[in-house]
Amino acid sequence: MDLNHHSQIKLYFDGDCPICNNIVLKRQLTEKGIQLTLVNARTLSTIELNTFYQLGFDLNAGMLIEFDRQYYYGHAALQLLFSLSASSNLMVRWFELSYLTLNQVRFYKLLVKIRLFILRLQGKTEIKHNTNYSN
Description:
Low-confidence stretches: none
Oligomer: single chain
Mean pLDDT: 82
Protein name: DUF393 domain-containing protein
CATH class: Alpha Beta
Largest sheet: 4 strands, mixed
Strand order of the largest sheet: 2-1-3-4
Distance between the termini: 32 Å
Structural class: alpha+beta
Number of helices: 5
CATH architecture: 3-Layer(aba) Sandwich
Order of helices and strands: EHEHEEHHH
Strand content: 5-15%
C-alpha cells in the first residue's frame, strides 16, 4: 500500500443507510494526504452496478473501496478504511478500534444484516442491480 500525497480512495456505499453514513462520512483522511471520493451506490447506473456484481461485488452485501489499483470489499474495505483514518466522532472511533481488534468477518456480516433491517424499517429497498445481467 503506497501512501503519498496523491493517494486517492473511491468508496462505494449505501447513502441511505444510517450505519454506513456514520462510518463513512466522519473520516479524517486529508491529514494523511489521501483524497476520499464518496460514491452513493444508489446513484450508480444499472450498468455500473452490474459491472461490480459481475466482478463479485454485491453492494447490498458490502461496501467497496477502489484504492491503489485494487478493490477491497466488505470486511476488507472496512478494515482498510479504519486503518487509514480516524473518525471525528468519539463513539464511532470506539467502534472502529473494537472492530479492528476483533477482526471478524462474522461481525461485518452482522452489520450488513442490521443495515438491511434498518432499511426495511425505513421503508427503503436494497440497491437495485440486474441479477440476470450477462456480458
